[in-house]
Specification:
There is one protein chain. The chain is an all-alpha fold. About 90% of the residues lie in helices and about 0% in strands. The chain is built from two helices and no strands. The chain has helices at about 1-40, 50-95. It is rod-shaped, with a radius of gyration of 38 Å.
């Protein structure tokens, strides 16, 4: 009879621990699910205030800046070529007049 009471008590303890652990597990699952739902919402465009919209604006701004920088670099190269050509003309002029 003692073995049956001990087994029943052990079984009750195991069921109680399992119930508590499953309650904790489901609570954690619920928290994670809702936390990720909030994060997921940030990655959907919503006309301006989501992280996705902010990233899109930043990408657009960076693209415009890159285009502007490339245009400026081309203009700078053209100016450098013009200056080099003017320098060559000046050297030719000085060489002809120094003789």
């Amino acid at each position: 009879m003692f073995a049956t009471e001990g087994t029943a008590l052990l079984l009750e303890i195991i069921i109680g621990v399992f119930t508590i652990l499953s309650g904790i597990a489901f609570s954690i699952k619920w928290l994670v699910k809702h936390y990720f739902a909030e994060i997921k919402a940030e990655f959907k465009p919503n006309s301006g205030s989501s992280m996705k919209d902010a990233i899109t604006r930043l990408e657009s701004d960076v693209s415009h800046l890159k285009d502007h920088m490339l245009k400026e670099e081309v203009e700078q190269n053209n100016m450098q070529k013009k200056l080099d050509h003017m320098y060559e003309i000046l050297l030719d002029f000085v060489a002809k007049n120094s003789k």
